[in-house]
Here is the input.
Amino acid sequence: MIDGLPDKGVPGEQVLAELRELRGADLPTHGGRLFAYVYDPAVDGLDDLARAAYAISAQVNGLDPTAFPSLLAMENALVGAAARLLGGDDETVGSVTSGGTESLILAVKAARDAHPDISHPRLVVPSTAHAAFAKAAHYLRVELDVVPVKGLRADPEAMAAAITPDTVLVAASAPSYAHGVVDPIPALAAIAAERGVRFHVDACFGGWVLPYLRRLGADLPAFDLSVPGVTSISVDLHKYAYAPKGVSILLHRTETLRLPQYFAYADWPGYTMINPVISSTRSGGPIAAALATLRTIGDTGYQDLALKTREAVRILADAVTATDGVRLYAPPETSVVCLASDGVDLFVLADELATRGWHTQPQMAYADLPPTIHLTVTASVRETASEFAADLAAAAAAARARGPIELPPLPPLTPSMITPELIANLAEGLGLGGGDFSQMAAVNTLLNAAPPPLREALLTGFLSLLQRPA
Here is the structure.
């Protein structure tokens, strides 16, 4: 264990060496073999540039733009770029946030606070909407109405039926994270507009690549502020804009729509607090790094990266189609390849792929949707995609030979029964006590068998077990 506060200071080079050693245990963030969590364009020199830009503004505080006008200029430049890309006009305004979850929380806050007369505000989302909407509803005490989808996409008729006089916001995805499909945004936005309700497009995941895919001829519906009825849209720059982590954009069609997003408080002896986003103090480092990234890649550069991504998706999708034991679960129309079982245990398959250097994201069953494996495809995958087919076939054959995971009989559990002691014993029994998370098929099988509330309790307990000093 590292001593976070030694008696005497440690030389800087030793500290850096320790950090590099710790990083050695992480999954690879570059190289086109990690299909979740990170976004790699494989652009030479971009990491060094972003780090240098970050360092220039790391000590700048976004709390007061009049004290640090450089940060104000950078934020306005990023918002302007996003507005131009996503169908905005001269009336469009926006804010730079720390990530997609913050952007969605603020979109819900703005909608809620625009209707102080509604005592029990409600948010309508399709069941494929990102879990951050549930987090926003929980934090902001907004009721969440989750509407079943039809064919993995939001169902306009069902969404319309869910809108009530207390609905303050309707939201949908472009694309959904789990399956990479775009909801019917024009139809949904028209319904919301007819009912006088705000409509938010969650384009946090793939919103920066969709415009370029459409330019390249992809058959994708309009999804942005060019669609009548769309009142706000969010897009993460640390995803397909390939900026370092910690930058998202929330756009509103007009300044009037944005104003309820702000928090202001003057009734205390200190400075008047005015915050457009959740944080007060904010480092300028991520914002400077994002601006440097956008200006270095440029519009034509992003189109080239989208083309590489599209080619990689096609190669991976063809590999899935050609492999016995698996099948494509969703149309590979954006930047996601989503596969389901056609005879093999998907959780065993994920482990077998990991042993071959491919790190995927297993997804649990939900309602009538089966377990799937999610592949987030980035531009860097174009160079490695041709290697995937043989490894997928070998992994599927190995998974078939191993057979499905068979769990031992488990006692009936409820969320209230999950204690730190039970979690510690369970982690030890599943081989997680030593911190090796490379073979997770048994764990994922157990989680998949658990109903969502129990799964939440188990994972909360496990994360709590990890996040404590030894």
In short: The first helix runs from residue 12 to 23. The two ends are 7 Å apart (CA to CA). Residues 264 and 285 are 25 Å apart (CA to CA).
